[in-house]
Amino acid sequence: MLLKSTTRHIRIFAAEIDRDGDLVPSNQVLTLDVDPDNEFNWNEDALQKIYRKFDELVEASSGADLTDYNLRRVGSDLEHYLRSLLQKGEISYNLQSRVTNYSMGVPQVAVDDQQSR
User: Fold this and answer.
1) Taking the domains of the chain in order of start, what are their residue ranges?
2) Pairing between strand 15-17 and 23-25?
Protein backbone atom coordinates (compact mmCIF):
# COMPACT_ATOMS: atom_id res chain seq x y z
CA MET A 1 0.00 0.00 0.00
CA LEU A 2 1.30 3.43 -0.96
CA LEU A 3 1.58 5.79 2.01
CA LYS A 4 1.09 9.42 1.10
CA SER A 5 0.30 12.88 2.38
CA THR A 6 -1.46 15.30 0.08
CA THR A 7 -2.26 18.89 0.90
CA ARG A 8 -3.16 21.55 -1.61
CA HIS A 9 0.47 22.46 -2.33
CA ILE A 10 2.56 19.62 -0.88
CA ARG A 11 2.45 15.95 -1.82
CA ILE A 12 4.66 13.37 -0.15
CA PHE A 13 4.79 9.75 -1.22
CA ALA A 14 6.57 6.83 0.43
CA ALA A 15 7.79 5.82 -3.00
CA GLU A 16 10.46 6.11 -5.66
CA ILE A 17 9.85 7.26 -9.22
CA ASP A 18 10.82 4.65 -11.80
CA ARG A 19 12.05 5.30 -15.37
CA ASP A 20 8.50 5.54 -16.66
CA GLY A 21 7.58 8.16 -14.08
CA ASP A 22 5.47 5.74 -12.04
CA LEU A 23 5.55 5.66 -8.25
CA VAL A 24 6.94 2.45 -6.76
CA PRO A 25 6.10 2.05 -3.04
CA SER A 26 9.13 2.14 -0.74
CA ASN A 27 9.72 2.09 3.01
CA GLN A 28 13.12 3.76 2.53
CA VAL A 29 12.45 6.69 0.17
CA LEU A 30 10.14 9.70 0.37
CA THR A 31 9.30 11.63 -2.78
CA LEU A 32 8.25 15.28 -2.47
CA ASP A 33 6.09 17.10 -5.03
CA VAL A 34 5.90 20.84 -4.34
CA ASP A 35 3.10 22.98 -5.80
CA PRO A 36 1.88 20.43 -8.37
CA ASP A 37 -0.68 22.89 -9.79
CA ASN A 38 1.88 25.71 -10.26
CA GLU A 39 -0.14 28.08 -8.10
CA PHE A 40 2.99 30.02 -7.08
CA ASN A 41 5.98 31.69 -8.68
CA TRP A 42 9.13 30.06 -7.34
CA ASN A 43 12.76 31.01 -7.33
CA GLU A 44 15.50 28.49 -6.65
CA ASP A 45 16.25 29.88 -3.18
CA ALA A 46 12.64 29.50 -1.99
CA LEU A 47 12.38 26.01 -3.43
CA GLN A 48 15.61 24.99 -1.69
CA LYS A 49 14.16 26.31 1.59
CA ILE A 50 11.21 23.94 1.15
CA TYR A 51 13.55 21.02 0.48
CA ARG A 52 15.73 21.86 3.51
CA LYS A 53 12.64 22.17 5.73
CA PHE A 54 11.43 18.81 4.41
CA ASP A 55 14.78 17.20 5.24
CA GLU A 56 14.67 18.80 8.71
CA LEU A 57 11.15 17.51 9.41
CA VAL A 58 11.99 14.01 8.16
CA GLU A 59 15.16 13.95 10.26
CA ALA A 60 13.22 15.07 13.34
CA SER A 61 10.87 12.11 12.94
CA SER A 62 13.58 9.53 12.22
CA GLY A 63 13.19 6.44 14.33
CA ALA A 64 9.39 6.76 14.31
CA ASP A 65 7.32 4.32 12.29
CA LEU A 66 6.45 5.38 8.77
CA THR A 67 2.68 5.86 9.06
CA ASP A 68 0.00 7.90 7.32
CA TYR A 69 -0.23 10.08 10.42
CA ASN A 70 3.49 10.85 10.57
CA LEU A 71 3.61 11.58 6.85
CA ARG A 72 0.56 13.86 7.05
CA ARG A 73 2.19 15.71 9.91
CA VAL A 74 5.28 16.44 7.82
CA GLY A 75 3.05 17.52 4.90
CA SER A 76 0.99 19.81 7.09
CA ASP A 77 4.09 21.41 8.60
CA LEU A 78 5.49 22.01 5.11
CA GLU A 79 2.19 23.56 3.99
CA HIS A 80 2.42 26.02 6.91
CA TYR A 81 6.04 26.77 6.03
CA LEU A 82 5.03 27.44 2.42
CA ARG A 83 2.43 29.91 3.69
CA SER A 84 5.14 31.72 5.68
CA LEU A 85 7.24 32.07 2.51
CA LEU A 86 4.24 33.63 0.76
CA GLN A 87 3.57 36.01 3.64
CA LYS A 88 7.22 37.12 3.64
CA GLY A 89 7.08 37.77 -0.10
CA GLU A 90 9.64 35.08 -0.94
CA ILE A 91 7.15 33.47 -3.32
CA SER A 92 4.08 34.95 -4.97
CA TYR A 93 0.87 33.77 -6.59
CA ASN A 94 1.17 32.73 -10.22
CA LEU A 95 -1.59 34.79 -11.82
CA GLN A 96 -1.21 32.72 -15.01
CA SER A 97 -2.10 29.55 -13.11
CA ARG A 98 -5.00 27.45 -14.33
CA VAL A 99 -6.87 28.34 -11.13
CA THR A 100 -6.23 31.35 -8.92
CA ASN A 101 -8.11 30.68 -5.73
CA TYR A 102 -5.78 32.41 -3.25
CA SER A 103 -5.91 29.38 -0.96
CA MET A 104 -3.22 30.86 1.28
CA GLY A 105 -4.92 34.24 1.66
CA VAL A 106 -5.57 37.23 -0.56
CA PRO A 107 -2.35 38.66 -2.01
CA GLN A 108 -1.21 42.05 -0.83
CA VAL A 109 -0.99 44.72 -3.50
CA ALA A 110 1.35 47.66 -3.09
CA VAL A 111 -0.47 50.99 -3.16
CA ASP A 112 0.88 53.57 -5.57
CA ASP A 113 1.28 56.85 -3.66
CA GLN A 114 0.65 58.88 -6.83
CA GLN A 115 -2.81 57.36 -7.34
CA SER A 116 -3.90 57.91 -3.74
CA ARG A 117 -3.49 61.70 -3.95
Assistant:
1) 4-93
2) antiparallel
